[in-house]
Amino acid sequence: MLSNKDTVKAIEVMGEKFPDARTSLKADTDFHFLLAVILSAQTTDKAVNLLTPRLFARYPLPEDLAAANLEEVIPFLRSIGLYRNKGKYIIACAADIVAKFNGQVPQTRRELMQLSGVGRKTADVVLAECFNIPTIAVDTHVTRVSKRLHIVPQKADVLTIEKILMKKLPEDLWIKAHHCMIFWGRYQCMARKPLCEECPLLLMCAEGQKRVL
Ligand code: SF4
Predict the structure, then answer these.
(1) What fold is seen in the domain 4-21+136-212?
(2) Over the stretch 13-58, which tens digit does the pLDDT of each residue have?
(3) Does 162 sit in the ligand 1 pocket, CB within 6 Å?
(4) What residue spans in the chain does CATH classification 1.10.340.30 cover?
């Protein structure tokens, strides 16, 4: 298992390779960012960014979207998968924000997770991006990279991965680590063909050494 010190080192190396690692979702308000994160499930940020300008212009505030019906909203979402369900979630989420939080996106995980369509990962992303509250949202890239580098046990579930990362990394690295690991998973340590031979982490990566040798 990778030590705490080497885990920090690995994140630093990732940060050197991808100094601009940050969210690619575009939004002008906390509410719109939350919608973008909900819409990004099982699709790319790029696909979400293509549709959100029209959606956001039509529904600037939670009150506007809460008052919409699904058939009105669906045409804005048709270009992404699961658009009907996502449409239901974002309308219900907006209604929850209006009814329970006075029209403001809440700033705690517990409250965020009371909103329709918001699970722990979405809540963590919103806390970090909108409110600069340290979290490590664990997605498919963070999971794969953590396991390949043996930062976590191979059978660790998402919650365990989050806890181990939070233990091994200082709090001021959590948000950066999330972004760096996503970029690492997208562009260096891809699911099918990781670039192990030219990987600066090869010497500390048991999985990479297995693949190269
Ligand atoms: Fe991923 Fe390969 Fe680098 Fe390990 S050596 S982190 S498996 S790309």
Answers:
(1) Endonuclease Iii, domain 2 (1.10.1670)
(2) 999 999 999 999 999 999 999 999 999 999 999 999 999 999 999 9
(3) no
(4) 30-131
At 126, list the tokens: 């919103």
199 marked ligand binding residue: yes
20 is catalytic: no
Closest CA to 184 of 63, 74, 21, 75: 21
Catalytic residue list contains 139: yes
Q: Ligand 1, from 13, 18, 199: best to mutate by most atoms within 8 Å of Cβ?
A: 199
Can you give the pTM of this predicted structure? 0.93
**What's 196's DSSP letter?**
G
- The arrangement of secondary structure in 30-131, i.e. its CATH architecture, is Orthogonal Bundle (1.10)
Alpha-carbon span 128 to 135, nearest angstrom: 6
Indicate if the pLDDT at residue 159 is higher than 90.
Answer: yes
